[in-house]
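All the exercises in this workshop are built on plain-text protein records. A learned vocabulary of local backbone shapes supplies the integers on the structure line. Once this layout is familiar, the rest of the handout is easier to follow. An example says more than a description, so a record of this kind follows:
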Amino acid sequence: MSSGNDFASRLARLSFILNDGSARRHAPATDPVEQHLGGLRLDRIRQLKREVEERTGLEADELDKVAMRLLLDEYASALVHLRAVAREGAKNVQTAPAALKDVRRFVEKQQARQATRPASTAPSG
């Protein structure tokens, strides 16, 4: 294959990777974590990585630079989404003790009510 045909086929593959919108999952907007995870384009990252790896050891041309730039941009985008997921997780961890305290209080009240019930009204089991 001539270098011109190789360049054209590599350009066509990059174009296909960029135009493939199916890699993005559409998540409901109600859950911010799912929304961020849905924004990850893992297929695109894999495909761009493969394009870059196929040229390892060869002299880099302009198309290699474009492929690497696209790959770095996808990594940067993924990092933004994963940081947002980590922030949401940290928020949940911070609010968990208060929620557990409320649940523990509710369970204790329920147990106290059951303990003070007369035997005739206690559920039979």
About this structure: The first helix runs from residue 3 to 19. The two ends are 80 Å apart (CA to CA). Helices lie at 3-19, 32-38, 42-54, 62-116. The mean pLDDT is 86.
